Structure formats: C-alpha cells, structure tokens
C-alpha cells in the first residue's frame, strides 16, 4: 500500500521479534494476567509504580506477532507516565482500534503505537492489540485477576 504502512509493518515485526521489557519484574507493585482465547494470546504483566508514576513495566507470555509487539510497545510507552497519563493513552489507543474499518483517525500523539492502529481494519485482531493494555489497567488497579478479552 503506502510507504507509511510499510514502515508500520517494520515497527511491528521488530517489536514482535525482539520484544522490549520481556521477563519478570522484581519488586513489582502490581501484576495481572491477560488472555485472549480467540487467538491464544496469553501474557503476564508486571508494573512498578512509585509516587503515582509507572517506573517500569515488563511482560512475559506468548501470542501472535500483534499481541507481542503491542505488549512490547506498551511497556516502553508507559514508562515514566503517571497512572492517569497511562490510562489516558490507553483510552486514546483503544478508541483508535475500535474506530472501525476504513475510518480516518488522528495518530499524531500515539508515537510508535500508531503502527498498530492498522488492526482497526481487522476486528478479530483488535483484541490482540488491546490485550496488553487491558492487562495493564488491571495491574494498575492492583491486579490479582485474569483479564480476558472474551
Ligand atoms: Zn493474537
């Protein structure tokens, strides 16, 4: 299609092949499990929150390229954000994913996450891209439960 979609494709491949922040986090303040049974994506997410700021987020799990890339980019994106900022970014990102096939969206404030907004064309994959974020929300709430996209 366009050069932009090639670039997006490359970002997703890079993060799915070499996920950032993978592996358990010691001294986490929150932990949650996420599952997307439709695709078979599973992940465990750890966050370290200090003074209301996400100091670190790490994940472990297995799933498709989209879910892995999304978790990798998410852990990078929220680091250093306040909880409110992280939740606001989730809302922005999630509403882009849910905007539906063919919709025009503004990705100017999404950074790398913009690369994943192409999944809005494929409703089945929206859950793959949003799983890590739903799990993040649960971990920020203290965790202890398994989040499922179903
Ligand atoms: Zn998936």
What this model shows, in words?
This protein is α+β, with helices and mostly antiparallel strands and about 150 residues long. It has a single domain (about 5-150), classed as Sufe protein. Chain: A (Alpha-Beta Complex). The chain is built from 4 helices and 4 strands. It is globular and about 45 Å long.
Which tags fit this structure?
150 residues; alpha+beta; Sufe protein. Chain: A; 4-stranded mixed beta sheet; 4 strands; 20% strand; binds zinc ion
Write the layout of secondary structure elements.
Elements: H1 3-17, E1 30-36, E2 41-50, E3 53-62, H2 65-78, H3 83-97, H4 123-140, E4 146-148
Parallel strand pairs: 1-4
Antiparallel strand pairs: 1-2, 2-3
Spatial order of the strands in the main sheet? Answer: 3-2-1-4
* N-end to C-end Cα span: 32 Å
Residue runs with pLDDT of under 50 for 5 or more positions:
none
Which series of helices and strands comes N to C?
HEEEHHHE
The counted number of beta strands is 4
- Global structural class: alpha+beta
Number of structurally distinct domains: 1
Strand content: 15-25%
Q: In CATH's first tier, which class applies?
A: Alpha Beta
The CATH architecture can be named as Alpha-Beta Complex
Q: What is the molecular shape?
A: globular
């Amino acid at each position: 299609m366009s050069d932009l979609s090639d670039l997006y494709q490359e970002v997703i491949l890079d993060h799915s092949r070499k996920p950032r922040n993978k592996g358990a986090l010691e001294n986490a303040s929150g932990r949650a499990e996420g599952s997307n049974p439709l695709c078979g994506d599973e992940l465990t997410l750890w966050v370290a929150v200090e003074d209301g700021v996400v100091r670190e987020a790490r994940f472990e799990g297995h799933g498709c390229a989209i879910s892995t890339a999304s978790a990798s980019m998410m852990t990078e994106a929220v680091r250093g954000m306040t909880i409110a900022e992280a939740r606001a970014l989730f809302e922005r990102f999630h509403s882009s994913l849910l905007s539906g096939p063919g919709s025009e969206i503004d990705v100017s404030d999404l950074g790398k996450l913009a690369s994943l907004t192409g999944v809005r064309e494929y409703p089945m994959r929206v859950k793959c891209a949003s799983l890590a974020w739903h799990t993040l929300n649960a971990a920020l709430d203290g965790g202890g439960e398994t989040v499922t996209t179903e």
